């Protein structure tokens, strides 16, 4: 994972409460030692609802049990579950948005068999979840769906997962040794969380593990010690250019905005103006963790991870549970349901007006 560039150095040295918001991805505040920044676009990440790989190995494969995780030998490659199918045409506007879903399903099932799921991403590409190693091998060989030329690649995030372990006995063990010993349990990468104290980076007993499966194991074994794997909850992704949430600066189309004063046209390196937040208009920097907008984004990501739902679903759920000041509950949720007891019909009313209410069920007119 790429290390985020350090920003606003001069400001951070005098603001301990917000310092860790701008550090590298492996350096976090002490209270957030179990959290980790991730610069990945969560918008196109659907929920991973697939069950873990079957405990019954395919012919010629050997597995061994390790706690709650079915691990592979280090020389065996774990197959991927999620693949992206993209149309390969000279016109970038030609996507699967304009292709019949019947044609897509028939072309895929006739080529590699029935798959677990097929979803269309916002980009117009197809996200396909396979069920076996054989299908994973076959789908990578696809060059066309019916008469449509395509390119198939593994999804960049859904085929792996991250979890956090805490072990004091591993504090002074080199990361290379930890990774070598845990690789038979599905671990592919390990990173130690560090904290900044008195201007110095200190190692902690918390480790970020990357696994080669969509779902992290419940626990792993480090030698004789059985360690629970806790959910990995990244911090909100904030653009270092426009200071808005939800996208990295590499893809930003906005204007350069100061993270300190929220004024466009300059960065915050030498800014000494009064603090002002771009996102909530509060009297603090745009990278402050006391920002209500930051807390909302954090809650959305937490809900997404813990409930295993898509980012858009998590956002709708959290926003529905957080009514906006000055608006009624009905307006915040936008959907009211009333049961018509006399006619046994369900009435669904959608309204944006605070004055619109459902006072009573509709009564039948007298004959």
TrEMBL record:
Superkingdom of this protein's organism: Eukaryota
Region of interest (Disordered), ranges: 1-68
Protein's name according to its UniProt entry: CCHC-type domain-containing protein
GO function terms (MF aspect): nucleic acid binding; zinc ion binding
Species of the source: Araneus ventricosus (Orbweaver spider)
Residue stretches of biased makeup (Acidic residues): 29-44
């Amino acid at each position: 994972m790429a290390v985020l560039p350090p920003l606003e150095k001069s400001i951070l040295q005098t603001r301990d409460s917000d310092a860790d918001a701008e550090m590298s991805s492996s350096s976090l505040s002490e209270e957030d030692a179990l959290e980790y920044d991730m610069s990945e676009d969560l918008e196109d990440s659907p929920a991973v609802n697939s069950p873990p790989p079957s405990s019954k190995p395919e012919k010629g494969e050997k597995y061994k049990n390790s706690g709650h995780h079915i691990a592979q030998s280090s020389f065996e490659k774990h197959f991927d579950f999620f693949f992206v199918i993209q149309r390969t045409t000279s016109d970038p506007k030609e996507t699967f948005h304009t292709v019949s879903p019947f044609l897509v399903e028939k072309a895929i099932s006739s080529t590699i068999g029935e798959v677990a799921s097929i979803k269309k991403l916002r980009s117009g590409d197809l996200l396909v979840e396979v069920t076996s190693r054989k299908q994973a091998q076959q789908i990578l060989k696809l060059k066309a769906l019916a008469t449509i030329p395509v390119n198939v690649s593994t999804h960049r995030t859904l085929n792996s997962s991250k979890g956090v372990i805490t072990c004091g006995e591993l504090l002074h063990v080199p990361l290379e040794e930890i990774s070598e010993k845990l690789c038979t349990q599905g671990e592919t990468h390990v990173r130690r969380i560090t904290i900044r104290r008195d201007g110095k980076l200190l190692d902690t007993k918390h480790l970020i593990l990357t696994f080669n499966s969509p779902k992290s194991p419940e626990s792993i074994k480090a030698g004789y010690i059985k360690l629970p794997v806790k959910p990995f909850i990244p911090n909100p992704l904030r653009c270092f250019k426009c200071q808005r949430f939800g996208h990295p600066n590499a893809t930003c189309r906005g204007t350069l905005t100061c993270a300190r004063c929220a004024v466009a046209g300059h960065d915050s390196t030498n800014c000494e103006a009064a603090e002002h937040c771009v996102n909530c208009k509060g009297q603090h920097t745009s990278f402050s963790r006391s920002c209500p907008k930051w807390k909302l984004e954090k809650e959305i990501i937490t809900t997404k991870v813990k409930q295993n739902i898509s980012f858009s679903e998590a956002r709708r759920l959290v926003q529905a549970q957080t009514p906006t000041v000055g608006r009624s509950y009905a307006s915040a949720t936008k959907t009211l349901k009333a049961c018509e007891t006399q006619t046994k019909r369900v009435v669904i009313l959608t309204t944006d007006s605070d004055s619109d209410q459902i006072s009573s069920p509709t009564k039948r007119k007298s004959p």
